[in-house]
# Entry
Amino acid sequence: MRFTPTLLLAGCLALTGCSTVHLSAYTKEKDPFEPYNRKVYAMNDAVDKVIIKPTAQAYAYVMPDTMKTLVNNFFSNLDDVTVTANDLLQLKFARAASDGSRVLFNSTFGVFGLLNVTTHLEKHNEDFAQTLGYWGCNSGPYLVIPFWGPSSVRDGVGMYADSFYGVIGTRPHIPTRNTAFAMNVFNNRVGLLDSEKVMDDATIDRYSFLRDAYLMRRQNLVYDGSPPRIKYDDEDEE
# Structure
């Protein structure tokens, strides 16, 4: 299952919203495949509990903090390649220069990205799905992808497109590519071990929480932190 370190905290975006439709209508519109999605979510959650989470916990326990930082820096640098490409596709040339500089300096002076020597440059989050959203493509229905996690029709297409120019996805040596992909998944999962305790301690519908948090976070990213406001049901009554 795919996770991002900020996913659990993204629920607070519900306070600001991401569209001008009613919140209840928004949920129905965005998750028409809920019965299917819940089954896939249950399967993914079982795989996470049995395999991914225990492995991530073992990795976090045995790996020194310094090594975890180096690994995280390495994959962050690979991600910046994809970010820079999508900066250019969105005509964000100032960001492209900044993110491209991160790749250049971290790949050279930072020893292939193991060291982050560009802490003065802000790290951005861009991918091809956000590029599609930037140019007006709607996210489409929410989808839970088997063995991957939360997504949408647009995000699934974007993820597939990113694989054609992402550093990991373009490695011709399949064992190397699969190993790097697995390491990146576990590295991301480790980043969630502490923050997910907030969700575990709360009495909530985990599926609905993750769905709403994911959709709102993605909308927030498309609009660079300034999404349109949600119109709540009780506003019509005022």
Remarks:
- Strands lie at 142-145, 149-152.
- Residues 8-229 form one domain.
- Residues 34-62 form the longest helix (29 residues).
- Residues 1-22 have pLDDT under 50 and may be disordered.
